[in-house]
Design a protein that fits this description.
The protein contains nine helices and no strands. The chain has 119 residues and is an all-alpha fold. GO terms for molecular function: chromatin binding. This is SCD domain-containing protein.
Length: 119
């Protein structure tokens, strides 16, 4: 009976295990997408990452995830850069999320002059 209790504890969902699962499902593919050959895949990934950040700000509105959007602003393909701008538009429209993005804004120099360059 004691061994059964130990096995059950092994499968309990802890915050650490939840973060590992999120990393496996969402973040790991995002880490690989900047190297993808097809710009369509990069554009889809950045768009989806933007959606995840918008809907789950407490978990994803961090520099660890925002940096992928920032890096993709300098992608060679216009479609990828445009998806980045749409993702950022959704984040900057909300005063709550915009206030949490000060470091990202300063690091990637997000302003109206750069936006015209990215298009």
């Amino acid at each position: 009976m004691f061994l059964l209790g130990l096995r059950e504890k092994k499968y309990l969902l802890t915050p650490h295990r939840l973060q590992e699962g999120i990393w496996t499902l969402i973040a790991a593919p995002v880490v690989c997408f900047p190297r993808d050959v097809l710009p369509e895949i990069r554009a889809i990934c950045i768009g989806e990452l933007g959606q995840w950040i918008q809907h789950y700000t407490t978990s994803f509105l961090t520099d660890g995830y925002l940096k992928y959007i920032g890096w993709s602003l300098h992608d060679k393909q216009r479609e990828v850069r445009l998806r980045c701008l749409f993702a950022l538009q959704g984040l900057y429209c909300s005063p709550e999320t915009a206030s949490q993005m000060e470091l990202f804004t300063s690091r990637f120099k997000v302003n109206s002059r750069n936006i015209s360059h990215w298009l």
